[in-house]
Each structure stands twice: as C-alpha cells, then as structure tokens.
Amino acid sequence: MNFVPALIDVPTFGQPARSLILAQPAEKVRDAIALWLSGFTSENTRRAYRREIQAFAEFAGHADAGAAVAQFLALSDGQAHAAADAWRADKIARKLSPASVNRSMAALNSFVEAARRYGLTALRLEAKGVKSCAYRDTRGPGMRAVRSMIDVAAAQEKPQKAARDVAILRLATALGLRRGEIAEMNIGHVDLAGSSISIKGKGRTERETLTIPANVRAALAAWLALRGTEDSADPLFIALTNAARGHRLTGEGIRQIISVQIAEEAGVKARPHGLRHTAITAALDAFNGDFRKVKDFSRHASLETVRRYDDNRNNFAGSVASALDAIIG
Q: pTM higher than 0.70 for the full model?
C-alpha cells in the first residue's frame, strides 16, 4: 500500500491535499535518521527503531527509508496521522502483539519529534498505540527450571562453552541482568578481587556497579580462566561457533543459547527475560514482598512495576475468583 503518494494526491479530511513544507532530500533525511538513532544509549533500541523505520518505509511502498520518510515529513498533520493510523491498522489486521504495534508508533513519534528539532518538518505527530496488558506473566520458568538449566550448561562437552553458558545463566538469574546488559560488558567491567561488575543498565547513560555473590564470582572466574585473553577492552562474552568465533556475543546470541540450546535440552521453556522474571519473583519470595529492596535489585524505575510482580506472585485475582466461586456454591 503506497499510502504516502495517495495522501499527497487526494484531499484529506476535506482539506486541500498539500504539504506544509517541501519534501527534504532523501540523503538529508537518512542523515537525520542516523543522528536520531545515535542518541539512544541501548544498541537494542537503536536496532529495533532502525527496523521500525525501514518497516514503515516498506509499508509505504519504498525500499529506501530516506525517500519514504522524506515524503512523510512533508505531509500535513492530518495526512501524517492518517498514514500512521493506516500503518497501525495494518499491524492489528496482521495480529501483531500490542507491544509490537506500540513500539512502531513510539519509533515514529520519536523520529518525527527529532526531525522537527532538526528543522526538517513542521509535523507534530501523536501516533496512537493500542492498549496492552503489561507484565501478564512475570513468574518466568521458576527456580527449579533454572537449576536444571545450569546443570545442563555445566555438563556440556566443551569446557569453554560450559563455563561461558553457566556464567551467563548465573548473571541472568542471581543478578537479574537483561541480555543486552550481559552482551555489552567487557572483561574490564569485571572486578573479581572486589566481587563486583559494572553494567550499563537500560536507559542509563552512566555505568553502575553491582556486587556479585559467591557463585556468580566463581562462574565468572571459571569462564575468564578459559576466555583466552585478559585484555580489559575485549568483550566479556564471545561467540564460540566456527563462523563467529571470537566476536562479541550479541543479545540474539544469548537468546539462542538460553531459549534454544539449553532450555530445550533441560526440557523447559525459558527466555532471557523470563530468567529475569524468575529472579525478581524469587527475590520477593525471599524478602517477604519487600518492594523497595527488590526495586533496588531489579533496577526498575517504578515501584509500581515491582508491585505487579508481587500481584502475579500471589495470584490475587485467582484468590478472589476462588472465594467468589465458593460463595456462589
């Protein structure tokens, strides 16, 4: 569906179809996209938003994101909102998840705001997302599954792979780290003598130091002993496959290790963020629902997010339903 030319050529909402400003050169818009993406601290965010802009261009019928977005930026507010709504409707029709739809709208809003600051458009876009149920299942696979996965990882035939995978699993569970936080660490970010690591948390501009417990420290020590280098600037975790050996292990690589290789061998269903969910839920169990302690551990910005974990942990909705069922008889 080539909606951009259509919105330019035909009247929209009863108004003459005309642009507020002339379309910018595609190359200039491509530079603006690159500048906008460079402002995000998370490589995962940059990668995801880059994909969203390309997907938007392809929906508009363009292979070139610069050309498509240049036309979009020249639309009137009404035309641009109709275009964004058409993209959202297409995603809903294809039964994409609310999170996917909302990420697309957020990326588009964010770039248009940046383009307006750069003087490339007069648009004030407020593309609407869809309602979603956040944190529907925050329990994760559970600690029994985690222990099984660590046993499977440790029993792998190749010592280097076994040590690496155990260290990754322990960071994801004992510290509740996100896969992006694990992937970005360098050797120099690990201080075994001081029992600490330095991570760059989600949305943070500065690194933060976390204390590592004994089992995590031992796992990291075992991996570093087999890592093959002590250069502090080298990535902490690397790929061990023949095709990518020695390259930094990506977030997707960590997902493959946890979700496909180890979880399937252990006979459980797990994903990296599920291990984080398990860690946070187990922390609430260990500290009798102490939200503030667990908020510090999870590094969530909002205490309300931790409360959702606690609600799911206690299954308050299920308890109420059971009580009502008993009353009805």
A: no
